[in-house]
């Protein structure tokens, strides 16, 4: 309905927004602050790459348990940072 600015038409439009885009905006309203954390684009990608490199490199040396390989890189980021950012990420999503 073009050029219909009646209360009923605007209420329907508002309902449409509330059930669609506004619902999504409310759901993800804390995401920008979460992504503002510099570790999201520096430390964590670097950690993931280094873990993958360690897990998939075949060099003929004695195998190191996967847990040790992962923990070695997690220590560089810091366990407190990992826990804090992980919990924040869970609450944001």
From TrEMBL:
Keyword field: FAD, Flavoprotein, Oxidoreductase
Domain FixC-like C-terminal: 31-92
Listed Pfam families: ETF-QO_FixC_C (PF26311)
Classification via InterPro entries: FixC-like, FixC-like_C
Keyword flag Phosphoprotein: no
GO terms for MF: FAD binding; oxidoreductase activity
Required co-factors: FAD
PANTHER family per UniProt: ELECTRON TRANSFER FLAVOPROTEIN-QUINONE OXIDOREDUCTASE YDIS-RELATED (PTHR43624), PROTEIN FIXC (PTHR43624:SF1)
The protein's role, per its UniProt record: Part of an electron transfer system.
Protein family (similarity comment): Belongs to the ETF-QO/FixC family.
Name of the protein: Protein FixC
Native species: Salmonella enterica subsp. enterica serovar Kentucky
């Amino acid at each position: 309905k073009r050029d219909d600015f009646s209360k009923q038409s605007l209420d329907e439009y508002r309902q449409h927004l509330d059930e669609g885009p506004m619902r999504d905006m409310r759901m993800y309203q804390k995401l920008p602050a979460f992504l503002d954390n510099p570790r999201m684009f520096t430390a964590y990608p670097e950690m993931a790459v280094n873990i993958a490199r360690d897990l998939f490199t075949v060099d003929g040396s004695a195998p190191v348990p996967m847990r040790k390989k992962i923990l070695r890189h997690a220590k560089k980021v810091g366990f407190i940072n990992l826990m804090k950012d992980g919990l924040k990420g869970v609450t944001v999503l």
